[in-house]
Amino acid sequence: MPIYKRITIDENTTALVWKIEETLDVLEHAVSLTPNCKERYDSMKSLIHKKGFMSIRHLLKEFNYTDFDLYYDDKGKPHLKDGNFISITHSFEFTAVIVSDKKVGIDIEKQREKIKLIAPKFTPIEEYKALGNGENLVRKLTIVWGAKESLYKLYGKKGLLFLHDIFVEDFDIDSNQTTAKVTHKNQITYYTLRFLEFENFTLVYAISD
Length: 209
Known about the structure:
The protein contains 7 helices and 11 strands. The protein has helices at 24-28, 35-43, 47-62, 115-122, 125-130, 137-155, 162-165; strands spanning 5-10, 13-19, 70-72, 78-80, 85-91, 94-100, 104-110, 166-168, 177-184, 187-198, 201-207. The strands form 3 sheets. It has a 5-stranded antiparallel beta sheet with strand order 7-11-10-9-8. The protein has a 4-stranded antiparallel beta sheet with strand order 1-2-6-5, with helices on one face. Strands 3-4 form a two-stranded antiparallel ribbon.
């Protein structure tokens, strides 16, 4: 069960990506869950969701954590009991976890044509037009969505609106990074986000200063 990708961002920040190729029985082996997570797991109907849930527990092991080191607040945001920050993501056969001594957010998305249909719901029209109409449109929109999702996770606050509160600047895909502005409670904060693509998936992560 190898790690698909390891991203060392700085001395105290690492992201790990897992490609789910194992059976559920293999993923369940030697994994202990808290009573709350066991209840959540048992209620899952989808096999891919169960596999994603368990693969994330294997990623936690790579950071020397277990399910018992993790807890969720009333907004569903995961936290580590030792004070480090964590963010988790799952999309189809990929999962990822990022751990840092700073606030972080991470997101994986599958690149799909349907994102063009929902784009006006999460990105302002002027930003949407800036992305162009070529073959890279799906890739760019997926990065924009991942960037906004990452920042939403970093903040961990309900009420942060993708369309109105998070603005992602236009960017060159080859640069592997972009900047974003978050407006929250009359405060404006700027972030640099980095992204990478693999097997028609997009991974984006955000780290606070």
